[in-house]
Amino acid sequence: MTRIVADISVSLDGFVTGPDAGPDNGLGTGGEALHTWAFSDDPEDRRILREATARSGAVVLGRRLFDVVDGPHGWDDTTGYGAGEVGKPAFVVMTSRPPRSVRLTGLDWTFVTTGPTDAVTTARALAEAASADRGEDLDVVLMGGGATVGSALAAGLVDELTLHLAPVVLGSGTPLFTSTAPRTLVQRAVTPTSTATHLTYDVH
Predict the structure, then answer these.
(1) What is the b/e burial string over 49-65, where b = at least 16 CB atoms within 10 angstroms of the residue's CB?
(2) Which of 54, 141, 142, 185 is the most buried (most CB within 10 A)?
(3) 139 — phi, psi (to 5°)?
(4) Beta pairing partners, 144
(5) CA dist., res. 116 & res. 145, Å (int)
(6) Could you report the per-residue pLDDT of 140-176, keeping only the tens digit for each?
(7) What is the pTM of this model?
(8) Topology given in CATH for the domain delimited by 4-16+28-203
């Protein structure tokens, strides 16, 4: 069964970027510390990254994040989604207007202009097709940014929330939770490593 998994790194004070985030400074000032775990040699960090990448049938992201990863200082062969791990999933971008061109033409991009529900529905269809091809259940992963994950949570679209809690206080930046409606979370896993605390919740 295809699950909808929101997976994002966050600071102790609830920010998914530092201050002054933008196309040329995607993680904001100090925001690189949120993703130290993804480049760590800690065996548990590597396992968590490997398993998350392996289960990704399709990935949803917002337009601001797309502009960062597709920008001149964005992803490359060493820093792309799950770089060094297996597979390259399809990507679905939530946007009010598709870009005129795409730099990362080697990736499968779909642009959805009609909101989070349609973006997740599109990603689910892509993940289910990938599941059929590979003969195993694959998930839709909402990788961010914060507004994308928050809107999906608010719309009741998320089955599982995975937070990579970095040991840093950023003070300001892009918050993960703003006006999200109350949700009951059931804690399913807690994995502390040398760089982060990885938290997994079922969302009801």
Answers:
(1) beebbebbbbbbbbbbb
(2) 142
(3) -110, 165
(4) 61
(5) 13
(6) 999 988 889 988 998 899 999 999 999 999 999 999 9
(7) 0.91
(8) Dihydrofolate Reductase, subunit A (3.40.430)
